[in-house]
Amino acid sequence: MVTEAGFGADLGAEKFFDIKCQLHHLQPSACVIVATIRALKMHGGIEKEHLSEENIEALEKGFSNLQAHIENSKKF
User: Fold this and answer.
1) pLDDT one-digit tens code per residue, 5-30
2) DSSP 58
3) Gap between the Cα atoms of 58 and 44, Å rounded
């Protein structure tokens, strides 16, 4: 079974793991996290109107957010 848990681990994935899986006795065997360059730059502090511009510093800063999602997913 494949399911889409929604945008943001706190809104989708955690509800899926904590509610749906427990209620239906499911044991997920994989988790896929989709992270775009735009999203990483946004989490790195770039305003929406500047997301199309190259900004390696913001991209690198955004990886800390991705790392947090990875660590949270590993807990499940």
Assistant:
1) 665 666 677 778 888 888 888 888 88
2) H
3) 4
Query: CB burial class (10 A; 0-12, 13-18, 19+) of residue 36?
Result: exposed
Place of tokens 């946004």: 42
44/35 Cα distance (integer angstroms):
13
**Does position 57 have pLDDT exceeding 90, yes or no?**
yes
CB 61 within 8 A of CB 45: yes
Question: Which of residues 67 and 76 earns the better pLDDT score?
Answer: 67
Residue 4 dihedral angles phi and psi, to the nearest 5°: -100, 125
Interior CA angle at 32 toward 30 and 38, to 5°?
170
Does the pTM surpass 0.85? The reply is: no
Half-sphere exposure (CA, 13 Å, Cβ side) for 39? 11
